[in-house]
């Protein structure tokens, strides 16, 4: 089948890889003019990690990734106030765990299909019309074309979702936080392989030392207003207003933000839909079910969805209606569980009251005890999904 995939992030290229492997003809359309790099650092583990393994990617991901040793909470003076050894991550996942830039994961996945799959950068779907024979697609720039199926893998603000299922507002559950990330060269101090976090009521700022003398800075803060600042300057101003009176390293971090030439900024939201497909259009990854950064696993979930969607199409012998239904039946309970866990975790990021902050700090101290860390964190790292072995049927 000729299958158009909107979005060359994590889900899109993973889907293209498996579709190609099963003998289909995928085409990627990505609205950015090239592959998005940098951004923020993600933790990558579990069933998504296993899929990366099936794609032959894990040695490379482990080479370019980081093995975090400690998650450290600090007070306003920079003194350690809680945290835990990151060994709990590798032990709970049987060493299937690595942290890396989201953009590096995206390029590694893209590398598996580069030159083998048609990819149109700098373009976007403008309209979709489903007919019994196929989907007629018009683009912002390219000439209209017909495909057998269209898959939206275009993230939290999915265009395909909007065109095929309805406006963003209908499906987006804003969790009340804004998130921003940027990289700064030459920042001091550095704490190698330590994720350092400073939290006050309603706001958190963290730093992680990267290779090449770069440091990743991540802000998360409560914001009742779901509106997004209009442009990067307004985004910087919104963050500065929120953190200007913050202790710890807020001063130098805001100075670095002021000079930064790129910034990731978004709402922390989940996407909740009753269904992820129509007759010939389906969604995968954040476009379908964004669990938010609070799940700490969105990239892996995006890869799992792509793998299952391609596999079910293959297994159903191209009966796309049956395949879409089975894809959803297999994924939905797993995703709902992840979304629920993520919502429950929200208060731990930036507690909304002094009491919440106090409790979180007490818990964080207890996490220093390995047994408690395993109980509290290890459980959340389990993926309750049995990945079907579509490989057995592969061409
Ligand atoms: C701060 C932060 C921290 C996170 N931490 C983690 C973590 O620790 N672990 C983890 O696994 N996940 C984490 N995530 C989540 C993870 O990044 C996402 O879940 C994941 O990137 C989803 O992949 P995706 O392919 O569905 O969407 P995306 O990666 O968002 O890719 C979507 C692609 O579609 C493109 N696109 C958008 N609109 C259009 C359009 N109209 N036409 C064509 N293309 C379009 C975009 O440019 C992009 O390339 C984090 C997220 C954030 C924000």
Topology:
Layout: E1 2-6, H1 11-21, E2 25-30, E3 41-45, H2 46-54, H3 58-64, E4 70-74, E5 80-85, H4 87-92, E6 97-101, H5 102-111, E7 118-121, E8 125-130, E9 135-139, E10 145-147, E11 149-152, H6 159-165, H7 168-171, E12 172-185, E13 194-200, E14 203-209, E15 214-222, H8 232-243, H9 250-259, E16 264-271, E17 281-283, H10 286-289, H11 298-315, H12 320-349, H13 354-366, H14 370-378
Parallel strand pairs: 1-2, 1-11, 2-7, 4-13, 11-17
Antiparallel strand pairs: 3-6, 4-5, 8-9, 9-10, 12-15, 12-16, 13-14, 14-15
Helix pairs in contact: 1-11, 2-11, 8-9, 11-12
This protein binds flavin-adenine dinucleotide (FAD).
Structural class: alpha/beta
Main sheet: which strands, in order across? 5-4-13-14-15-12-16
Determine the N-to-C terminus distance. Answer: 15 Å
For the CA atoms, what is the radius of gyration?
A: 21 Å
Write down the overall mean pLDDT.
Answer: 94
What fold name goes in the CATH topology slot of the domain at 2-66 and 100-171 and 270-346?
Answer: FAD/NAD(P)-binding domain
Number of helices: 14
Strand tally, please? 17
Question: CATH homologous superfamily of the domain at 2-66 and 100-171 and 270-346, by name?
Answer: FAD/NAD(P)-binding domain
User: Which ligands appear in the coordinates?
Assistant: flavin-adenine dinucleotide
CATH C-level class of the domain at 2-66 and 100-171 and 270-346 is Alpha Beta
Q: What proportion of the residues form beta strands (DSSP E)? A: 25-35%
Largest sheet: 7 strands, mixed
Helix content: 25-40%
What sort of overall outline do the alpha carbons produce when their principal axes are compared? globular
What oligomeric state do the depicted chains represent? single chain
> Unreliable stretches, pLDDT < 50, 5 or more residues?
none
Under the CATH scheme, which architecture of the domain at 2-66 and 100-171 and 270-346 would be assigned? 3-Layer(bba) Sandwich
């Amino acid at each position: 089948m000729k299958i158009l995939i909107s979005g060359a992030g994590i889900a899109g290229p993973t889907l293209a890889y498996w579709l190609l492997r099963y003998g289909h003809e995928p085409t990627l359309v990505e609205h950015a003019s090239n592959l998005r790099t940098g951004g923020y650092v993600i933790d990558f583990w579990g069933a998504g990690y296993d899929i990366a393994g099936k794609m032959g990617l894990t040695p490379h991901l482990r080479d370019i990734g980081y093995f975090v040793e400690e998650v450290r909470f600090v007070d306003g003076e920079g003194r350690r106030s809680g945290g835990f050894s990151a060994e709990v991550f590798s032990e709970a996942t049987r060493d299937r765990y690595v942290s890396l830039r989201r953009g590096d994961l995206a390029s590694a996945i893209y590398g598996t299909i580069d030159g083998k799959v048609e990819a149109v950068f700098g373009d976007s779907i403008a309209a979709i019309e489903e007919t019994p024979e196929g989907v007629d697609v018009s683009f912002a720039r390219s000439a209209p074309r017909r495909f057998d199926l269209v898959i939206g893998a275009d993230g939290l603000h999915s265009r395909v979702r909007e065109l095929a299922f309805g406006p963003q507002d209908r499906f987006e559950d804003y969790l009340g936080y804004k998130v921003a990330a940027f990289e700064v060269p030459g920042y001091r101090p550095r704490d190698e392989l330590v994720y350092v976090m400073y939290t006050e009521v309603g706001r958190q700022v963290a730093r992680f030392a990267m290779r090449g003398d770069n440091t990743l800075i991540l802000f998360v803060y409560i914001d009742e207003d779901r509106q997004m600042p209009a442009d990067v300057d307004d985004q910087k101003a919104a963050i500065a207003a929120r953190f200007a009176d913050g202790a710890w390293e807020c001063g130098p971090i805001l100075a670095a933000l002021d000079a930064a030439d790129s910034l990731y900024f978004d709402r922390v939201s989940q996407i909740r839909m009753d269904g992820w497909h129509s007759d010939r259009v389906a969604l995968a990854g954040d476009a379908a079910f964004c669990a938010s950064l609070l799940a700490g696993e969105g990239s892996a979930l995006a890869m799992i969805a792509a793998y299952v969607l391609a596999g079910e199409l293959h297994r159903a012998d191209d009966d796309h209606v049956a395949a879409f239904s089975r894809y959803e039946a297999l994924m939905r309970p797993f995703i709902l569980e992840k979304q629920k866990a993520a919502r429950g975790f929200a208060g731990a990021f930036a507690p909304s009251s002094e009491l919440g902050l106090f409790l979180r700090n007490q818990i964080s101290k207890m996490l220093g005890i390995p047994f408690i860390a395993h109980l509290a964190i290890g459980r959340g790292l389990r993926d309750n999904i049995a990945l079907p072995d579509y490989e057995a049927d592969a061409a």
